[in-house]
């Protein structure tokens, strides 16, 4: 589904500020490629993100927005950056803690405005011990963000319960996020992904998919998700952990914005990779 498709669900109720910020994030073709580098908020210095600014510098020309925490934004992203910022505003847990789902809101709306964020994002953990708290976090954030015309992106996190990445669970999570007021939902690709998209009345962005061994498999789930109604991707590790990250993001962009097939994206990736190797 495109932004235009969803605009009929209440364009007049959207403030100009929200419409303007969504238009920065979602391009004129109705699609988007977001680059997340927020992993350190619970993982610490993730491999290849030890120096986030250096990692993403060659990738910035090919993404539509950056998903980042305030700390990394302030310390690693140049202030002359023109890309929209989606500010990660939830956290409070770590990989060595008891439960990743026990998140709270960590960043105020005043801070989001000071940092010129185009959107804010937080995780919800449906089905976890802390489901109730994280869903109320979302509802509270929507109330506060929309006072200032800032859209909220909900992230349907699953923590360690990876077996929950199926259409039934993700459909439930995405619909609840939309019901609570998220303007965009970030979720995992899964089999029968159209069921997830069809049950969600706001745009859906793919966060990733199953563990894969080849670039072709990444291109396959991205292409499938786009064909089944996703408006774009929010892919980090599948891009900046790749040995050829620029070739990877260009190939994914060809699917998202150029309607390339998985086969065409693979051919493009191999061509770009060999040019780098020469």
What is the β-strand count? 10
Q: Mean pLDDT score, rounded? A: 93
Helix content: 40-55%
Terminal Cα span: 40 Å
CATH superfamily: Aldolase class I
Helix/strand-derived category reads: alpha/beta
Unreliable segments of 5+ consecutive residues: 1-12
- Number of distinct helices: 13
Which value, in Å, is the CA radius of gyration?
18 Å
CATH fold call: TIM Barrel
CATH architecture: Alpha-Beta Barrel
Residue fraction in strands = 5-15%
Biggest sheet strand order reads: 1-2-3-6-7-8-9-10
Indicate the CATH class: Alpha Beta
Quickly describe the structure.
Helix content is 42%, strand content 15%.
Q: What does this protein look like?
A:
This protein is α/β, with parallel strands linked by helices. It has a single domain, classed as TIM Barrel (Alpha-Beta Barrel), CATH 3.20.20.70. Helix content is 42%, strand content 15%. The chain is built from 13 helices and ten strands. The chain has helices at 3-7, 16-25, 40-43, 52-56, 70-76, 109-114, 131-147, 167-179, 193-198, 215-227, 237-240, 245-256, 262-277; strands at 32-36, 65-68, 85-88, 90-91, 104-105, 119-124, 152-156, 184-188, 204-208, 232-234. The strands form two sheets. Strands 1-2-3-6-7-8-9-10 form an eight-stranded parallel β-barrel, surrounded by six helices. α10 (215-227) runs parallel beside α12, α10 runs antiparallel to α13 and α12 (245-256) runs antiparallel to α13 (262-277). The radius of gyration is 18 Å and the shape is globular. Mean pLDDT is 93; it is low at 1-12.
